[in-house]
Design goal:
2 strands; two-stranded antiparallel ribbon; mainly alpha
Length: 90
């Protein structure tokens, strides 16, 4: 358990920040799939450990795990509809 949760951003706060960065109105319950995908991609591409090769970002496992975690917690319908559980690593 986290000793002081005030030291960490909640997942909904992360989504609000990313929506702001991407110019998406942050109405999570009304977001279309393209907006959710854009938010998840942004999170993955800006996670710690991202590698840039020839000017292109390579999303590492840290970014992938972060994208999936945010999707599960904030967009469970999107996670289920797009069968993202098929790519979740054990």
């Amino acid at each position: 358990m986290v000793e002081n949760s005030e030291d960490y951003l909640a997942t909904d706060d992360i989504v609000d920040i990313v929506c702001s960065e991407c110019g998406i109105p942050s109405f999570r319950h009304n977001m279309v799939d393209e907006e959710i995908a854009q938010v998840c991609k942004y999170i993955g591409e800006n996670a710690p450990g991202v590698i840039v090769i020839h000017g292109k970002k390579l999303i590492t496992m840290e970014g992938f795990d972060t994208m999936i975690f945010i999707t599960i917690t904030e967009f469970p319908r999107f996670f289920e509809e797009h069968m993202l559980y098929m790519v979740w690593r054990n």
